[in-house]
From TrEMBL:
InterPro entries: AB_hydrolase_1 (IPR000073), AB_hydrolase_fold (IPR029058). Residues 85-206 form the AB hydrolase-1 domain. GO terms for biological process: antibiotic biosynthetic process; monocarboxylic acid biosynthetic process. This is AB hydrolase-1 domain-containing protein. It comes from the Eukaryota.
């Protein structure tokens, strides 16, 4: 039985991005966000104190994948006689339906700092009231932690699921598989059969898998794959292009032999001890990790039992440091983590 009325919104993104290369020059003010708002059918007239949830998705995951999670949270809160005002989640500007809206103006140098600012803009745009709880998965945890550091009093609490908040470069292990993953199929039906036969995708909640097939794929033509004589008219590709997924995972630090220029230099953005010899880097996860002591909201970490990101040592360090610094919540010792 459906629990939510779903309202779709398209709003402007923050026009000033962290890096000029995130958008084609001259189009910063054209950047848009695809947003979904989930309003409980049983709470059409919310009361003061009803909770608003702000979601933030993982890299390459469309926002709709989290709908089974919203159902679970709704049921759990209802059992505790707590009400949800609404749930808001947006695709980051270069991925999902936002990426489709912005397809013709996207650059190749996004920053993980941008989406937190976009979420703050979203909250101001719709004048969303507190209390607010942020729920971020993987990359989305970075977005919400960064937003909380920008505005410490914004969230009452954060739920950070398998967060890529760490000193080592998380993009190392994902960039290569993403580079070589398949991204075009003759039809949505054939693509669905492939995903349903995969052990990885079969481990997902059934509705999440169905939403992946519906929203994680898009029909051709696209900017990358225009219809041609060699393309089936029923063909589909990934909604988030592999290139944009890769630009999100890693940023080049090598000198381009053709131009003689370097796109990014980790020495300008990272602590010396956090820099490795890999020719690609991602500065935001290590920076946010070093600022975990400053987090003011209560934090609930959810770690995957077999996660290659949240290994036991990394879990322990997050639990030990989060909220323990100046302006922080007091940390685990105070029952806040």
């Amino acid at each position: 039985m459906p629990r939510f009325r779903v309202v779709e919104h398209t709003i402007p993104a923050q026009n000033i991005r962290e890096r000029p290369g995130a958008v084609i020059p001259g189009h910063q003010q054209d950047l848009r966000l695809a947003v979904k708002q989930y309003i409980p059918f049983d709470n059409p007239s919310p009361q003061e104190g009803d909770v608003t949830l702000i979601g933030a998705h993982a890299c390459g995951f469309p926002k709709e994948l989290y709908e089974p999670l919203w159902d679970y949270i709704y049921d759990d809160m209802r059992c505790q006689n707590r009400s949800i005002r609404s749930i808001w989640i947006a695709d980051v500007a270069q991925q999902g339906q936002s990426g489709v809206l912005n397809e013709s103006i996207l650059g190749n140098d996004p920053s993980l700092y941008d989406h937190g600012r976009d979420l703050l803009s979203l909250m101001n745009h719709f004048k969303i009231p507190q209390p607010l709880i942020g729920i971020g998965h993987s990359m989305g945890a970075v977005h919400l932690a960064h937003l909380s550091l920008m505005h410490p009093s914004l969230f009452a609490g954060l739920i950070l699921i398998d967060p890529v908040i760490q000193l080592d470069n998380p993009g190392h292990r994902y960039a290569l598989p993403s580079t070589y993953r398949r991204d075009i199929w003759p039809s949505r039906k054939e693509a669905a059969e492939k995903f349903r036969s995969s052990a990885t995708y079969r481990s997902w909640h059934p509705q999440a898998l169905e939403n992946w097939i519906k929203f994680g794929l898009r029909d051709l033509p696209t900017k990358q794959y225009p219809i041609s004589q060699n393309t089936n008219s029923t063909a589909v590709t990934l909604t988030t292009p592999k290139a944009q997924e890769l630009f999100t995972y890693v940023r080049p630090s090598y000198i381009d032999k053709r131009s003689g220029a370097r796109r990014g230099d980790p020495r300008d953005e990272m602590y010396p001890e956090d820099i490795d010899n890999f020719p690609f880097y991602r500065p935001e996860p290590s920076y946010i990790f070093r600022r975990l002591p400053e987090l003011k909201p209560i934090v609930l970490y959810i770690f995957g039992e077999n996660s290659d990101i949240s290994v036991p040592a990394a879990r322990k360090e997050k639990m030990r440091t989060t909220g323990t610094g100046i302006g922080g919540s007091g940390g685990a010792a105070c029952g806040k983590v």
